[in-house]
Amino acid sequence: IVGTFYRAADPTADPFVEVGSLIRKGQVLCIIEAMKLMNKIDSEHEGEVVEILVENGQPIQFGELLFKIRPS
Question: Which residues of 3-34 are buried (b: 16+ CB within 10 A; e: fewer)?
Answer without folding.
Answer: bbbbbeeeeeeeebbeeebebeeeeebbbbbe
